[in-house]
Specification:
heterodimer; A: mainly alpha; ABC transporter involved in vitamin B12 uptake, BtuC; 13 helices; 2% strand; B: alpha/beta; Rossmann fold; 2 domains; seven-stranded mixed β-sheet; five-stranded parallel β-sheet; globular
């Protein structure tokens, strides 16, 4: 149980956390603006991962292109769910939207099963040995995954901080009526938001599937960890979602050294509970917004 | 659209009246024996479920072509257990309450069988499974549960024998956190310690549905084992082996064949899978029942029977059930059929290898001993059939059979 061992555990947690950060970010954006948790994020991830798999199997040579195809497909998918379902329910209570998103999640998964069989699938990457830095092992694939996730997150943050679109979205999240009164057109912006949701989910799905295996139900399994990250980081706070995801990932993996793998999920949620008890709004949550 | 109170009350009364109707309106007709096939078409058992179903259909066809069991034709109603206990329970309830089946056959995952057996037991129905969890032997109090696969405990004992034979000294175990995975590794640990080899160097249990098992693997590899024994399924084995190969460690693997199968080799490639020891129960390949089924199965599915040991077991389930039903008579209920299972499958008796053969022998007044396609089907006191184990080593993507293990 030396420092190299722990360094490896922290690295594992960081990698897992960065990948969960993408769907967590997608969730928190929609929660901030449309005010409901869209649990279809999980199955959107699954759809994105399978589209990338299909494109790769059909002969698309660069995996980056297959990923872009998956992102495009999920953008369209999420936009469609907004246009035909959530837009109609925008005045309905949060629970109604939540239930609709659950229904959409099941629909997506069942529709997917019409085309794919339920055998586990993997992307066709060559297997390579990890780089070994004095015992701390890093896989090239994992490095790519972290860099891609990091780049996506930076793009989203830059978008929100420095562009007009981002400013308007933050305004709508803060106070929809005031935003409308300030002549902020919400329709195009909401479309943009849902496209972003689809893109982040797709990318998260592809990265997660690249690390593990593709199964029809794998996206659904990540809804709870993503949601936990969102709550931990503070609902509606993008930086919080990412910080929450990384924190939970690292806490989980480091706990393996102390309590063993069977309890690591318990530890993750214990950390979440402790943080919420100390700061009920989450790490970077609403308490700051109300000021 | 609002509903006013009066119509709501009317709606409520109508539904209550509807619910009060008896469910089992499909009464067991005298000329048909309904059996339920609850196989894993989706989920971790998906590589085997459709083959199992096809084998059952072939068996039902065989029985009906020979005139049925004691005048009753078999009818198979199938459902997808999804390798999930929750989904399987819903499907089992539908089969029992709505379809009125007399037996549920083909449950694959231990979690599924353990969830379904209380339902079939309460309804006094036969349950036949290919699961490994040792608990299934003891949870069956009414002698209605028949197991056609080796128990995980026996798998573990076979693993221990293999590790011993190959001279490994520092085994570690990794178990999927369910009854089956832990049954494998607990069986291994117990057999290893009883043989006097001391404790295993590491023993961890990992959670299902994780994207990565690097930390778990790291914990095990830190103890420097020379062989890692698994109780796992295909998706998690894929992830673990990929991460192991990429970590650069050298050690052997003993993995149950439902996890180390051609799909694993396809996913990981030859370099990562060379030398893996896969262990499975062996079908009764020398028996006429196996050879006969092999041809029919190949024609119906386009796949070799040897690729799916569970298909042979599923076929045997239907045939042995039909033979027992024939012995018990045309009016027999599930419990009475179950009471005849050992009568038609265990020695003493004339060895028969098909339904028609067994039926003819029984009609002539002789006692029979059905030798199945999956094993000799000599059920012990728990209703377990205890097949032998085959040891396969993966070499360049092919599974070479190197040994057979018979436990007492």
């Amino acid at each position: 149980m030396n420092s190299v061992f722990f360094a490896n555990l922290v690295l594992n947690g960081l990698i897992e956390g960065m990948v969960i950060a993408l769907p967590a970010l997608a969730l928190t954006l929609v929660m901030g603006i449309s005010k409901f948790p869209n649990v279809a994020v999980g199955d959107t991830m699954t759809v994105g991962a399978y589209v990338a798999f299909g494109l790769q199997a059909a002969g698309v040579s660069w995996f980056a292109l297959a990923t872009l195809g998956a992102i495009a497909a999920c953008m369209v998918l999420s936009l469609a769910t907004y246009q035909w379902v959530f837009r109609k329910l925008s005045k309905a209570p949060m629970v109604v939207n939540l239930l609709a998103s659950v229904g959409l999640a099941f629909m997506m998964r069942s529709a997917l099963l019409l085309w794919v069989d339920s055998q586990p699938k993997t992307y066709a990457f060559p297997l390579v040995r990890a780089w070994n830095f004095h015992g701390v092992r890093l896989l090239p694939t994992d490095l790519w995954i972290v860099l891609t996730a990091g780049a996506a997150l930076l793009v989203v943050f830059a978008l929100f901080r420095y562009t007009n679109v981002g400013r308007c979205l933050r305004a709508i999240a803060d106070n929809p009526e005031l935003a409308r009164a300030s002549a902020i057109r919400s329709k195009r912006l909401t479309w943009f938001l849902w496209c972003l949701f689809g893109a982040l989910s797709a990318l998260g799905g592809v990265l997660l599937a690249a690390k593990s295996v593709l199964l029809p139900e794998f996206g659904w399994e990540f809804v709870i960890p993503a949601f936990a990250a969102v709550i931990l980081g503070g609902i509606g706070s993008p930086v919080g979602a990412v910080a929450g995801a990384v924190l939970l990932g690292v806490a989980q993996e480091v706990s393996v050294a102390f309590v063993g793998p069977s309890y690591k999920i318990t530890v993750a949620f214990l950390v979440m509970i402790v943080v919420l008890v100390i700061r009920p709004a989450g790490l970077l949550g609403l308490l700051e917004k109300a000021r | 659209m609002t509903i006013d109170r009066r119509s709501l009350l009317k709606l409520g009364a109508a539904s209550a009246a509807g619910l009060a109707l008896p469910f089992n309106v499909f009464a067991q007709s005298g000329s048909e024996l309904l059996i339920g096939g609850l196989v894993p078409i989706t989920g971790a058992g998906a590589p085997y479920g459709s083959g199992m179903l096809k084998a059952m259909e072939i068996a039902v066809q065989e029985v009906n072509d020979a005139g049925g069991a004691a005048g009753r034709k078999l009818k198979l109603i199938s459902e997808d257990a999804q390798t999930q206990p929750q989904a399987a329970v819903l499907a089992a309830k539908k089969l029992i309450e709505i379809n009125g089946v007399q037996a549920i056959l083909g449950t694959w995952a231990s979690g599924v069988s353990l969830a379904v057996v209380p339902l079939t037991d309460a309804a006094d129905l036969i349950e036949m499974n290919v699961s490994g969890a040792p608990a299934l032997s003891t949870v069956d109090k009414k002698d209605l549960v028949w197991r056609f696969q080796g128990t995980n405990d026996r798998f573990g004992r076979a693993f221990a024998k293999i590790a011993e034979k190959r001279g490994y000294k520092r085994p570690a175990t990794m178990a999927f956190n369910n009854a089956s995975g832990r049954g494998n590794t607990d069986g291994f640990i117990r057999a290893w310690e009883e043989a006097g080899h001391g404790k295993v160097v590491a023993n961890i249990v990992y959670e299902p549905n994780r994207p990565s098992y690097r930390s778990e693997l790291q914990t095990v590899l830190a103890q420097d084992p020379d062989v890692i024994v698994m109780g796992s399924y295909l998706p998690d084995t894929t992830i673990i082996l990929r991460e192991w190969f990429q970590s650069g460690h050298e050690n052997a693997w003993i993995i149950p064949a439902w996890a180390a199968n051609p799909d694993l080799v396809k996913a990981l490639g030859n370099e990562a899978t060379n030398g893996i020891i896969a262990v499975d129960t062996v079908s009764n390949v020398d028996a006429a029942s196996y050879k006969d089924l092999s041809g029919r199965y190949q024609k119906a599915t386009g796949q070799a029977l040897s690729d799916n040991v569970y298909a042979a077991m599923a076929y045997d389930m239907v045939i042995s059930l039909a033979l027992a039903a024939h012995k018990a008579g045309g009016k027999a209920a599930s419990r009475e059929i179950s009471a005849q299972m050992r009568e038609v499958s265990n020695p003493p008796g004339e060895k028969v290898y098909s339904f028609a053969q067994g039926k003819a022998a029984m009609d002539a007044g002789r006692q029979i001993d059905y030798e199945g396609a999956s094993s000799r089907l000599n059920f012990d006191e728990y209703g377990d059939s205890n097949p032998d184990f085959g040891v396969y080593v993966v070499k360049d993507g092919k599974f070479d059979r190197v040994d057979t293990i018979s436990l007492d």
